[in-house]
Structures are given as C-alpha cells and as structure tokens.
Design brief:
The structure is a homodimer of 105-residue chains.
Chain A (H helix, E strand, L loop, with lengths): L11 E10 L6 H14 L3 E9 L1 E8 L2 H9 L1 H14 E16 L1
Antiparallel strand pairs in A: 1-3, 1-4, 2-3
Chain lengths: 105, 105
C-alpha cells in the first residue's frame, strides 16, 4: 500500500497523472515499479503517491519545474512514455501544478 | 469507476487530498457520496477524480482559490471535515496547487 508522501514546506511541484489502462499487463507492472525506483533517484524528487482501482491516480512531488523536465527527458523514462502511449494506456492526462499550501492530520 | 476529469485550459487549481481510513464505515461512504454531489454544485467546481485502494487519493479541480475557500466553508462540508478528523481518517494531507500546464492522450 502506497503511503502519504512526506513533503517539505511549500512551494514545491506536483505532477498529477490520471490514467486508464488497456486490457492485459504487457510488461506494464514491471516497468511501473522500475519507473518509481528510477524517479526516486532523480535530483529534486520529493515523493510519490499512487493508487489504481479502474482509474489510476499517481501524484509525484518535485522541488522545481526543472526537476520535472529532467525526469521527463530521462532516457529509460522516455521509452516507458512511448510504450504508455502505444500500449498501456487507453487514455491519460498529465497536470503539472505548483503546490502553494498544505495541511494535514 | 471514476473518470478522468474534463478540465479547461490552465491555469486552474487542484486540491490533492491523500488519506488513510480508520476501520469500519461509520457513515463514511454515504457522506463521501454526498460531498461529491455537493461539491459539484459549488460555483467554480471543475471536476473530481477519486480512487482508494488502501491509500485514498481524491483530486478536485477548481477555477480559483476563492472557490476552494468557499467550498471549505460550506456548512455541511464543515460537519464532514470535523467527522473526518475525529472518526474517518487515521491520517490525511491536503495540498492546494495551481495547475500550470496539462497534456494527455
């Protein structure tokens, strides 16, 4: 079970990735795990929260827009992005957002 | 199954609500449905995406910070927030973020 990410005081950035999968695994699960491990090694990575139940929601947190751009350009991640468009997702939306305030329990 | 929200061109705002539930329903499911219906009636509401599988992730979209503030102050929603803190959630985090860019498939 994914945990609530421990993030620093705002401002920081969130990438909200909403998706629907196609039928079958087709190598998806292994690549998804690999991408989480790889993202965590990227400079500027702050944390990730991910849940799927039909709709998939993954929110990753970053210290800057530059860190998000560098992760998007990562060579192995680019292969995964291409495979996502061609095989794994029937639809997705990516939203890049600046977290301005947070609070919790 | 929740769908990917149809949102307008950025900028707009996202409220990212990450939570862990306590044991038992205790009136949660009914109130959660009611809050989604009620939020959709609020001025400035743009859409909502929600998934739970252990971790719960709900992202609601709004046209302004003022719309988010008004929803937070809604009387019936305030009762739900209080019950959330005292009974339904073992932990949660709310992040208010400005969506600056989006793209999709």
């Amino acid at each position: 079970m994914s945990d609530i990410a421990s993030t620093p005081r705002p401002p920081y950035y969130a990438v909200i990735f909403s998706s629907h999968r196609t039928e079958g695994d087709n190598g998806y699960a292994e690549m998804a795990d690999r991408m989480v491990d790889l993202a965590a090694l990227q400079p500027g990575f702050l944390g990730i929260e991910s849940v799927r139940d039909g709709l998939g929601l993954t929110v990753s947190y970053w210290d800057s827009v530059g860190a998000i751009r560098d992760w998007k350009r990562n060579a192995e991640h680019q292969v995964a992005q291409e495979r996502g468009r061609s095989a794994w997702y029937s639809g997705f939306k990516v939203r890049i957002a600046r977290v301005e305030r947070d609070y919790g329990l």
